[in-house]
Write a structure and sequence with these properties.
Number of domains: 1
Helix content: 25-40%
Keywords: Signal
CATH class: Alpha Beta
Number of strands: 6
Pfam families: DUF4440
Oligomer: single chain
Structural class: alpha+beta
Largest sheet: 6 strands, mixed
Protein name: DUF4440 domain-containing protein
InterPro entries: DUF4440 (IPR027843), NTF2-like_dom_sf (IPR032710)
Length: 149
């Protein structure tokens, strides 16, 4: 009987631990998806809250910090019209979350709509009650690329 009670307690504790991890992973995944919509909407005020002041952004055409990324979005020099997310993986370590999104991005750049396949890496850090984005990197990939879970 004690053996069964121990096993049941272990299972309940494991399930509770898994649920809390899953809940945080879901929160980060939702935040990442919301970010794509905010970028499409050019909602700089929400993005400004999300991006850490010292965040780094790496694109096909260069890398820059938060102020420049917000300016690019606000002016529409790159308009992230739609990110079709095909796959997402999230890993949490302490107060750091890493998100990998495999996407097809439709963007308006230099007067034309362009479509590219990317794996986007996002790094978030829990700062107080909020998650702040520290890193946002686009890696060009083939459409057959898969994210290892």
């Amino acid at each position: 009987m004690k053996k069964h009670l121990f096993l049941l307690t272990f299972i309940l504790l494991s399930a509770s631990y898994s649920f809390s991890q899953t809940s945080t992973e879901q929160e980060i995944k939702k935040l990442s998806m919301d970010k794509w919509q905010w970028m499409a909407d050019k909602d700089v005020s929400k993005l400004e809250e999300l991006f850490d002041d010292k965040a780094k952004f790496v694109h096909m055409s260069g890398s820059w910090k938060t102020d420049r990324e917000l300016e690019i979005i606000e002016t529409g020099s790159i308009w992230y019209k739609n990110a079709e997310v095909h796959d997402t993986a999230v890993e949490i370590s302490g107060n750091t979350a890493v998100v990998w999104n495999r996407i097809t991005l439709t963007a308006h750049v230099r007067g034309s709509d362009v479509e590219n396949e990317f794996t986007v890496t996002e790094v978030y850090q829990k700062q107080g009650e909020d998650w702040k984005m520290l890193v946002f990197t686009f890696s060009s990939v083939r459409d057959t690329h898969e994210i290892e879970h």
